[in-house]
Write a structure and sequence with these properties.
Elements (H helix, E strand, L loop, with lengths): L1 E5 L3 E7 L2 E6 L4 E2 L2 E2 L7 H15 L5 E2 L1 E3 L18 E5 L2 E2 L2 E8 L2 H10 L1 E2 L2 E2 L9 E11 L7 E2 L2 H8 L1 H24 L2 E12 L5 E4 L8 E5 L15 H9 L13 H20 L2
Parallel strand pairs: 6-16
Antiparallel strand pairs: 1-2, 2-3, 3-8, 4-5, 7-8, 9-15, 10-13, 10-15, 11-12, 13-14, 15-16, 15-17
Helix pairs in contact: 1-6, 3-4
């Protein structure tokens, strides 16, 4: 078994020619920087959420998960420290884009809207407020960068690279996943403001959703009850951590700062509540 990727949060191991093992750690990153202070149980929470969503949406599009049973993992990954945070997955030919579905005007989209009235070549209605719901969700793909920020690209650019049929198939799948899960979460008091998906092709050329899906690391989860436009809504993701870094002038700082105990505890609390609302309640 060989470790082939050590990412911001995940360690990926080559198990066989067609299988990988993914270990989700408690590391946390913000502004493309891995912070030195872990968030206890974060990896298990992310794993539980992705596993739930994979099961909940498998009728929409296939996913890469084979097993989350520790006994199915390579011997080296069967220790207690890997329990609840390790999955065995199918190895895919990954598409070189992240597929971001945005349902609300926020983050980088809000910043660009203020300057141009649109985002990624898409026009938006005039006079919108921060965090306002878009008339309909939009797909904004980004091309993966080896280092630093991924680069936003147009649908036309993605279509040229993937071919029209595959580009539209991915768009349809991402939209269907978002809408199904948005409705489920909304009933449980969470607004999924935006999220990103990654897709690959299996040995038969079929589309498969991979990586993580609809976790607090890959999405913005807002409290439905506390949601207001014109503000940064109360969230169940790492926006709280991002806001703390910004307020203290530490966003993107190298070397990154150690996190205070209260910030770690509050961040963990938000991740836990997200899991409780979406998974533990059934």
């Amino acid at each position: 078994m060989e470790k082939i990727i050590s990412g911001k949060v995940r360690e990926i191991y080559q198990v066989s020619e067609d299988r990988l093992a993914i270990v989700t750690t408690d590391r946390v990153s913000a502004f493309d920087v891995i912070l030195p202070t872990p968030i206890p149980d974060k990896g298990k929470i992310l794993n539980a959420l992705s596993s739930f969503w994979f099961s909940y949406t498998e009728d929409i599009v296939k996913n890469h998960m084979i097993s989350e049973d520790l006994q199915d993992m390579p011997q080296e990954l069967q220790g207690e420290e890997f329990a609840g945070r390790t999955i065995l997955v199918k190895k895919l030919k990954m598409l070189p884009f992240e597929f971001i579905i945005r349902g609300y005007l926020f983050g980088s989209m809000w910043k660009e809207y203020q300057k141009t009235g649109g985002f990624c070549s898409k026009e938006c209605p005039a006079g919108m407020q921060q965090a306002e719901k878009l008339p309909e969700p939009i797909l904004t793909p980004s091309a993966k960068a080896e280092e630093g920020h991924d680069v936003n690209v147009s649908f036309q650019y993605m279509e040229e690279k993937l071919g029209s049929e595959l580009a539209h198939k991915v768009c349809d799948a991402a939209m269907a996943l978002y809408q199904r899960c948005y409705d489920y979460a909304y009933e449980r008091g969470i607004i999924i403001a935006d999220t990103k998906f990654e897709f690959g092709l299996d040995e038969n050329g079929e589309l498969v959703v991979a990586d993580e899906v609809l976790t607090p690391d890959s999405s913005r989860f807002w409290s439905r009850e506390a949601y207001r436009t014109g503000t940064s809504p109360e969230s169940f993701d790492k926006q709280y951590l991002r806001d703390w870094l910004i307020e203290n002038g530490l966003d993107g700082k190298i070397p990154p700062p150690q996190l205070p105990e209260d910030v770690v505890a509050k961040t963990r609390e938000k991740y836990l509540e997200c899991r409780e609302r979406l998974v533990d309640r059934g």
